[in-house]
Amino acid sequence: MHYYLNLKNIFLLLALSLTYIILGVMSIQFVTMPSGIAIAWFPNSLLLALFLMKNIKEWKYYIPFFIVAEIVADYQVFTLIQALQFSFINLFETMFGAYIIKKLSSNDGAGFTNTKYVLLFFLIGLTLMPAMSALFGAIVYHTQIDTQTTFFEFWRIWFFGDSIGILLLTPIMVLLKENYKSLKNYDFNIQNISIALLSIYLAIVLFSFTDINFMLPTTPLLFVLLLLWIVYKQGVLPGMIMALLITSIAIYYTSSGLGPFSIFGLKGTTIYLQEFIAILVITTLFFGVLHQEINESKAKLEELNKNLENMVKEKTKSLMEANQKLNNLASKDSLTNIFNRRIIDEFISKETIKSKRYNNSLALIMIDIDHFKEVNDKYGHQVGDEVILSLVDIISKNIRESDIFGRWGGEEFIILLPETNLNQATIVAQNIRKKVQEYRFDKVGQKTISLGVSEFNSNDDSTVFIKRVDDALYKAKATGRNRVVSL
């Protein structure tokens, strides 16, 4: 409780109480027909908005201030007992209504952001609770105040005045709080300003018209279309504010006996005016919130689709990477990460067919590490693997990107050289042999290689081609190793 016992919050409570009194005076002075019937009773709109926006636990701090405000507002017209009764009726209506709306909407704070909340507001805030409070208010009027007005007439005046007042102001108060930060970014462009000024001008022209035969009582309903366009383009809050301005103009001129509703008697004029206000504002609020809800759903759906697309892209990327890894495992040698024998066989078959078709040169180099078994026997297989990896690195740096390099098996390697004749391939082989001979392998020192070279001719097939380069390699090894033999 100490939170509210500071100067700032006491000032806020006093300001709200003063606002309550001012709204009551406005309802009597400016929103009342010549017959004395209030078109709209605004004080309860403040109470309901406040209770909707505040946590239920905080309500108790406001009750005493509003009771005093009701007594101050009524002291010239009603007795203290009557004023107390009216204050309790108003508090019962707004507190109980706000409580039910909160519980049924599962929303501890106000929120005109979904149609469920709006429908609960219509059913509870505009219908059920005003009807109940009107019943209690009519009892007080009928039993304690000397008047010729019937009980039902008292009930009707209270009910419609209360409902219209709540409908006009409560949503705007709540929406202002909800959209306070976004109001700073509101687009005051020429189009929005023009629409607002045009709406006000049309309302003044229509409701100040003196020739009542020129229009029908239903003509003002054209403003429904205008307000629907405003909420569609600008949002709920601008639409509700414009609805308040239009209804204020309608009340002002109608209470002066002007406009399309003035063809009826005092009672009929009031009823038609209240019906017009109810239709205009309810339609604006409901369809404004519905449009907002649809836009939010679309935005969520677009975000969901975007997330799903990203997830699909990620999954696709992962699958592609996994497939690439599988392809690598299937096509690459596990130790050296160069092509394995199966893939080299496929490349040789494809390139020999291409060579026959286009009459292109094609050469093969087959390589064997001299006395490699001695390395494994003396230093172990791990050192042998390191020698193979170093050899692969040397060869890879001394061939073209277009050349196809693979491990044929064990310590044997093969290079397929497209667009290369026998002499060119022999030069490549000699260069590789020299580079290897000059290299000093870790722990092993110098190692040499033997190389066989062969060129494909049109009478060959891939098997004959491979057999010939294998024979060349065998001859290189048989004639002393560390040499290149071309066949």
UniProtKB/TrEMBL annotation:
**One GO cellular component term:** plasma membrane
User: Principal place where this protein is found?
Assistant: membrane
Q: What is this protein called?
A: diguanylate cyclase
Which CDD domains does this UniProt record tie to the protein? GGDEF
| Originating organism | Sulfurimonas denitrificans (strain ATCC 33889 / DSM 1251) (Thiomicrospira denitrificans (strain ATCC 33889 / DSM 1251))
Q: Which residues form a coiled coil?
A: 287-332
Q: Which SUPFAM superfamilies match?
A: Nucleotide cyclase
Question: Which molecular function terms from Gene Ontology are attached?
Answer: diguanylate cyclase activity
Q: What is the lineage of its organism?
A: Bacteria, Pseudomonadati, Campylobacterota, Epsilonproteobacteria, Campylobacterales
Q: Where is the GGDEF domain?
A: 360-487
Per the record, membrane topology reads: Multi-pass membrane protein
Question: Any stretches that span the bilayer, and where are they?
Answer: 12-31, 37-54, 117-142, 154-176, 188-208, 214-232, 244-265, 271-290
EC assignment: the record states 2.7.7.65
The superkingdom of the source organism is Bacteria
Instruction: Identify the keywords attached in UniProt to this record, alphabetized.
Output: Cell membrane, Coiled coil, Membrane, Transmembrane, Transmembrane helix
